[in-house]
Amino acid sequence: MHRTIFTPEHEQFRQLVRAFLEKECVPHTAEWLEAGVVSREAWRKAGELGLLGWMVPEEYGGLGIRDVRYSVVIAEEIAATGTQGIALALHNDVVAPYLTDLTNAEQRRRWLPGFVTGQRLVAIAMSEPGAGSDLKQVKATACRDGDHYVLNGTKTFISNGLLANLVIVVARTDPEAGHRGMSLLVVEEGFEGFERGRKLDKIGNRAQDTAELFFRDVRVPAANLLGEEGQGFYYLMRNLPAERLGIAVYAIAHADRAFLVTREYVQDRHAFGRPVGRFQVNRFALAEMKTKLDVAHAYLDRCVQAAVDGELTAEEAAGAKWWATELQWEIVDRCLQLHGGYGYINEYEIARLWRDARVQRLYGGTTEIMKEIVGRSLGF
Asked: If you ran DSSP here, which 8-state letter would residue 27 be given?
């Protein structure tokens, strides 16, 4: 299907991304899956090639480019190459807006150069054992004590939790003010009382580290407050639509990959004397999936263009996220079915794609929460 949202510059960038992934990431897939974490060297290589922090102002090492289409290219190439573990979207799409838009000049000088080079890896700590999609239930507290905040709390499901040098922590600076009492604090590696817990044993995405984080009387300098005190919830709500669009884009790219490997499989796999793909029921299944993927690309490309134009709404991002991830699961599950028994064998790529797809309907806000956001926009 012909797509019109990309310029020649985006396609040149795509070639650079593909070359990086095939050289620096794909050969290490087995190693990273076994370790449950990506090497720091891969991150530094990404930084050297300009694949990190291009939205950062030039004076801090970036290119000053604000264009979500570059992130779309990365998501599509990660899926297309089967790359595992390296959370470029977390770095560039999720965390970058906080570090570029909420920091003051002194914070930018401290943090942004390393963010661009891959020397400073990042994470954002929102979820807690009792607070997931409903951020209003966050229990972590940060009490002001002179020129510091004393931070206490537990965070879980934190992507890049083991590798991160900087962690943006969502905490209550005014426990009595509800969602108006939340603030964002940057905790740096080495702060006393900041501890990393166990690496969580996940069903899928096993090469990307996901950890528990503990904060026990961590003295965070007031100079590490992001933006204004008490505005954390509003900052989170402002940035979540971009995160959700990114999840939607990756969902369809991932489904594309599942469709491709399945199409190749049913051409080579024979049953009753002919390729499996020649049976009418299977041809129809492939035709349905192909059409749905074409529709999905047209839909998401329109959402991406809206984001480029500054017009994407929170409701549109929520709708794209739930619809794309549900379609991803439908297609990947059907692709596994077309593999028959071999689809359940781990040495076949479709098995990993199936496992990795499941979480997409959970993080960034569950499907049910996304529908709630869309429903409220309708007046219900």
From this structure: G
DSSP state letters, 28-72: GHHHHHHHTS--HHHHHHHHHTT-S-TTS-GGGTS-----HHHHH
CB 303 within 8 A of CB 323: no
Cite the DSSP H helix spans in 269-312: 280-308
pLDDT digit string, tens, across residues 105-154: 999 999 999 999 999 999 999 999 987 667 778 999 999 999 999 999 99
Specify the 3-state DSSP secondary structure of 119: coil
pLDDT at residue 32, rounded to an integer: 94
Question: What sign does the CA torsion over 170, 174, 176, 179 have?
Answer: negative
In order of their start, the domains of the chain are 8-120 (1.10.540.10), 123-229 (2.40.110.10), 234-377 (1.20.140.10)
Each residue's pLDDT tens digit, 252-308: 999 999 999 999 998 887 777 777 777 787 899 999 999 999 999 999 999 999 999
- Report yes or no: 40 and 121 within 8 Å, Cβ to Cβ: yes
Contacts with 201 (C-beta within 8 Å, 6 or more apart), sequence order = none
Judge whether residue 1 has pLDDT over 80.
no
Residues recognised as catalytic: 243
